[in-house]
Amino acid sequence: MAGAGYKTYTTGDILTASDVQTYLQDQTVMYFGSTATRNSAIGTPSTGMVSAIGTGGQLQYYNGTAWIDLIYATNVAWTPTYSTTVTQGTGAVSSATYTRVGNTVIAQVQFTFGTAGAVTGAIDFSLPVAYTSSTRFTGSVRMGIGASTYTGSVIASGGSARVYATNVAGTYATVALTAAAVPGTWALNSSFIAQMIYEV
Is the pTM of this model over 0.90? Predict the structure, then answer.
């Protein structure tokens, strides 16, 4: 019986067949219409509790401090915020999706510049789920500028990610910050696709 809520039993309560079916059997994983309803019903959750939220039944577990998404059944869309050094231009296209499995986030961002689109410094964009650990490599990026294709890395810190281009000028390949002319001059129809895996 989805959506029946959460029931607290007290001494002397009669346990009916309906209660056994509704609360003890059907709601071993508790279902709530929203996180607000769940939080109101369970004022002090116990570590390890599992709940399903909303029409999609998003699973969350309580880790002793907060409710954490357990796994998404499908990719979830989010809207990245780009740095002030990125002028998207008229008609720019940006799309992003991510999946979270426990503390692991798998994300992808696709971006194409519109008319008058430009870059004046490093390309930064916000992450769907921030983390507070030290800066580290999180993924790869493919950049299309004019007829040329370039590869690079995505390095993230806190709530945002930064795009770097591969630099092969030296003995060993290194990375260089994206800029107005790195790895090429960004303009109309220039694009990048970034794919990331990181832990929160």
Answer: no
